Each structure stands twice: as structure tokens, then as C-alpha cells.
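During the reporting period the student researcher (J.K.) took over the structure-prediction task from the postdoctoral fellow and processed the backlog of single-chain submissions. One of the processed entries is reproduced below for the supervisory committee.
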Amino acid sequence: MTDHIIEISHLSKSFGGKKVLEDINLYVRRGEFITLLGPSGCGKTTLLRQIAGFLQPDEGTIEMDGKDISGIPPHKRELNTVFQRYALFPHLDVYDNIAFGLKLKKVPQDEIDKRVRRVLKLVAMSDYEDRDVDTLSGGQQQRIAIARAIVNQPKILLLDEPLAALDLKMRKDMQIELKEMHRKLGITFIYVTHDQEEALTLSDTIVVMNEGRIQQIGTPVDIYNEPVNAFVADFIGESNILDGTMIRDKEVSFIGHDFKCVDTGFGENNPVDVVIRPEDIYFTDSDNKAQFTATVKSCIFKGVHYEMFVETELGYELMIQDYDAYPVGETVKLYIKPSDIQVMQKLRTANVFETEMSGDGTVSIFGEDFECKPELGISQGDAVTAEVAFDKVELLDHMEEGTLEGEVHFILYKGNHYHLTVKIGEGQFIYVDTQDIWDKGDLVGVSIAPKDIKLTKRDEKA
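J.K. obtained the following C-alpha cells:
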């Protein structure tokens, strides 16, 4: 028997023409604590609801123990779901809430009593069976919701942001208890959260999702130390994410300096993204050890460490976390170990659109016409590729002032500029490098000058 209890193949789901999940491929090991992690709207809850049977996929399959479960209703699947809102019955006491599912299945009363007592002990609520659920605290209600799910002895427990309604201290306590419950039960947990720290604390495996796609699957250590792209690096913990150039194997340039690294296979003189965690930039008094200098711009005590922002001699801003504080205004000497430099493939190096040359000297981008200056040999009706550099896209305060209208969807700080993802319509994006400060959700106009659209002719048959 395979150790995969769940296998998901080429799963897709759309709502109202919008793709919420696209070509999801994933397996879950028996007894694993796996977490679906991502921002709101990334598709993680939709994926969980399809595993539970509350939604049917448009394409693809979900297998449990090697059998396709797409046609099996939720109550007949060997799994149970714990929701964010608990969904306890207010007219029933703790005992009857937990026993409800067993009574529906007509389990003998002595077996019900035995199981309820066992799970109450497991969730540390043994003396509460006669209490009304509306007299319990949020943390206690969550324990009862978990007890009600596990009393049915499911093979898989699905948890949809179960700790989101709790305060910070209670969340921390419940994280420890959930981890211990998983160890004692030995069943598979599939957990949904947008909280990175929670995912790192609880999980054997983390599945990072964004825009309906899986970005990376790995252990908490892998996800943190070896992010595969800038989104993952930015989403998991604090990071310095910088534009770089891979000079050659094991040598990379960023912030105006060349550094030794351990990465290979990125070619020579190719653009890359570089990630440096704040705790991996070190202070030194040695001129021989120092690789660059910077000026301390801020220093804040965070309880365990100090968080400092420094500005390098070439104007790059870096976050540093250190146990020692350095005063604002001091010039410091810094170095980074080769093993602490994470080089990643860039997702893209420019905005690229496949379009067609019209007769009036325009090309269509997102359904709108942009003036352009075609090279010799490009004429009306030719299939062309239009390329626009990130820093050649202008964002305007008023939507109606641009040729396109958009919404700031994602913001990535790159040390000396911001890299923005701007949403244009449903599932379409344009990418912008800017010095200006925008907020997520800002509505903007988008403008591109004719001289900044670079056209190349392409073969439609290619």
C-alpha cells in the first residue's frame, strides 16, 4: 500500500468564469501534518472544500487510498472538517455536541460514552461534558469542535483556519495543543492558514499557494531557507529581496557588490533575485572581513532581538536583526556568508504581450490600443511580441487618466525601489518598478509611452 492517503491530479476550479484553482497536483502522506498556506483569495480553502466534498472540481481528480472520491458525498468520506466558526449547536451541551455524529450513525450508547470521554481527555476538557457551549471561551469552544470531529475516528482531519478567531496568546497555546493532538492521534491533518508563523510551527509539509497555483511544496526549513521565488521569500518571514546578476556559478552581484555564494546553474551574467534573511547579515569590526558599509537609519527593540534598517553607500536599504543594538547614524561594517545568500530564478524580466500590429500604428494590450513605433519590416496584421520594461510603466493617481485601469495587487520592496503587481481585469496583470509608494488595493491608471514599447515580429505558427 502506498503511503499517500490523498492524491490530487490536475485539479482546476472556476467561479463565474474566474479560475480559482489551476492545475493543482499534490499528494498527502498518511499521518502527515500538511498546511495549505497563502494570502486571502489564493484558493487554499477552495482546495480544502473540494477534498471535503463540499465542492466538485471542474477538472482533475482527488483520490483517497487510491480510489476516486469525486462522486462520494461529504458525509460518506472518511474525513471530518473543523471550521473557523466552530459550528457548535447552541441548544446542546458539550457531551451532546460531541456525540451528535455518533448518534446519527446509531453507535451503541456505551461506545458513545467511551469515545466521548476519550476525546474530552485528549482536548483537556474532561470536566466540561455537562456545560452549555455558549458558556465556554473561544479556545474551549474550538477544543470541543475538534473533539466532535475526531470522535468519529476519521482518517483525515481537515482544519480551515480553526484558530483565526482566537486572540494571540490563545492561538499560541492552541498551536502547541494541536501539534500534540496530531502526535497522539497519528491521523492525517490538512490545515489551512494565512499565518506564516503558524504554518512553520505546526507543519511537517507546507504548500505555499498564490493566485490559484502552488508556488512551492517543502518542509518548514526548506520553505524558509530555500524559497523558489520572490513571492515565497516575501510571504514566509522577513526577507531582503534584491535584484541581482549571476556573474557565474558561485558568484553573484547585488547592491553594487560581488559576493561569493553556493548556487550554481543560473548561467552567466543573467538577472536573478537574491534573498538575504535579516538575521544573516553580520556586523564586524574587521576591515578584512567587511564586504560593504552602511549607515544605521533606525533601531527598534523587538523583545528577543533588535531590528535595524541600514542604508548602504549606494543607497540600498536592508533590514538586519541582531542581538546587539547599533545607534542611529553610525556607519557600520557588514558581511554576508556565501551559504546565507539564496539565489532564485526571476519569474519574469519584463512585461511581455503577444499581440498583432494594427494599421494605425497601434498594438492591443489587455484589449486597449497603445501607440507604438514599429521597426522596419513590421506591418499591419503582423503577429508581434510587445515588450515593456517594468520601469517604463507609469502609474497615475486617477484611473481615468490612464489607457488602462488597474488595482495594486501585490507589493515587493527590492531595496531601492518597489516592484508592483497591478491587476488589470480578471486574472490579468502588469508589473511595475517604481520609486513611488503605493498601497495594496489602490486604484490606478496605467500609461505606457510609445517609445517604450519594443516590438519584435513573431511567427504565428511557432
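The committee noted the following: The chain has eight helices and 30 strands.
J.K. will present the remaining backlog at the next meeting.
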